[in-house]
């Protein structure tokens, strides 16, 4: 069964619009877990535009599943992650001006820095923090992820999700399928995410070896109409439908 990680950043985005206390992402995490999510994902961005340190600390205390922290390799953020000791981290690239994470991390270009951060995170806590790296579906990046000691990669599905034509969509899907096989051959864990929604997730759940999908925006948008509990349940059902037993 493919696991569903729900990214709850945008609950905090809404809260921060009025600089108040609600909607509370910690309360949201409880609902998301009740609805069957397998992990809670948050991205502590350097500009703290949604989730902040207090949220992450509270989440760490209350969640019953797993806390997956998405983060850049900035020293300040790495220091915080080492103190919090989440169940897993996913290293992502980060630009201040972007609306959302635009592409995968370039491990080849930043190899030494990433290798150091992977070592630091894996050896820091009382329990092992699994390290995943968010990359484009590219063989060289997968190989580099293995070399720097990652446990998992998360393949960026954004180009597939944003494809403007059927031809482009199929081409991007093929890249993800080929990359997934390479990830499995290298003995890495396989996650995927970004831009996935109720219409496009079906093709991704069919891919051999996918362990977890991290999905945020589409679930939070759907929650506006059907409630958070139902929005998560609906997505969970789509993941189950793709279960290859
Ligand atoms: N995975 C990673 C690594 C991400 O950075 C994001 C966006 O924060 C997601 C998954 C979720 O993307 P979306 O909100 O488009 O579902």
Descriptive key words:
globular; TIM Barrel; alpha/beta; binds pyridoxine-5'-phosphate
Amount of beta strand: 15-25%
Helicity range: 40-55%
Biggest sheet record: 8 strands, parallel, barrel
Name given to the CATH homologous superfamily? Aldolase class I
Query: Which ions and ligands are bound to the chains?
Result: pyridoxine-5'-phosphate
Secondary-structure content class: alpha/beta
Summarize the helix and strand pattern as letters: EHHEHEHEHEHEHHEHEHH
- List the uncertain runs: none
End-to-end distance: 7 Å
> How many separate domains make up the residues?
1
Strand order of the largest sheet: 1-2-3-4-5-6-7-8
Give the overall shape, derived from the CA principal axes: globular
CA-based gyration radius: 17 Å
On the 0 to 100 scale, the average pLDDT is: 93
The total strand number stands at 8
Q: Determine the number of helices (DSSP H or I, runs of at least 4 residues).
A: 11
Which architecture name does CATH use? Alpha-Beta Barrel
CATH class: Alpha Beta
In CATH terms, what is the fold-level topology? TIM Barrel
Walkthrough of the structure:
The chain is an alpha/beta fold and 245 residues long. The chain has one domain: Aldolase class I (TIM Barrel), CATH 3.20.20.70. Helix content is 47%, strand content 16%. It is built from eleven helices and eight strands. Strands 1-2-3-4-5-6-7-8 form an eight-stranded parallel β-barrel, surrounded by eight helices. The site of pyridoxine-5'-phosphate (PXP) has 19 residues, from strand 8 and helix 10.
